Amino acid sequence: MKASEIKGMSVEEMNEKLTGLKEELFALRFQLAVNQLDNTARLKAVKKDIARIKTVMRETEIQSGVKQ
């Protein structure tokens, strides 16, 4: 997932995607722990996608002037 794709999403869509990615990361970590994970590179990709979404969300917060 590219940052340009994320910037085109609404905040609600980003939150939904973030939740889904966190669930996927949990499942991947579980598979890794029980030695059933085939594609270990997917862990790194999911972590980067989570970071990208959080970064874009923070950028939009700063631009709108809203603090959390």
Tell me what the structure shows.
Helix 2 (11-33) runs antiparallel to helix 3 (41-64). The longest helix is centred in the C-terminal third of the chain and has 24 residues, at 41-64. The chain is an all-alpha fold and 68 residues long. It has one domain (3-63): Helix Hairpins (Orthogonal Bundle). The chain has 3 helices and no strands. Helices cover 76% and strands 0% of the residues. 6% of the residues are buried.
What features would you highlight for this structure?
single chain, 68 residues, mainly alpha, Helix Hairpins, 3 helices, elongated
Return the CATH topology.
Helix Hairpins
CA-CA gap between termini: 26 Å
Determine the structural class based on helices, strands and strand pairing: mainly alpha
**Helix fraction by DSSP (H/I, runs of at least 4):** over 70%
Shape: elongated
Stretches where pLDDT is under 50 for at least 5 consecutive residues are none
Strand fraction band? Answer: under 5%
Main β-sheet: number of strands, strand sense, barrel status?
A: none
CATH architecture level-2 label: Orthogonal Bundle
Count of runs of 4 or more consecutive helical residues: 3
The rounded Rg comes to 14 Å
**Element-by-element helix/strand order:** HHH
Number of domains: 1
Mean pLDDT score: 92
Q: Assign the CATH class.
A: Mainly Alpha
Total strand segments: 0
Short description:
By secondary structure, this protein is mainly α.
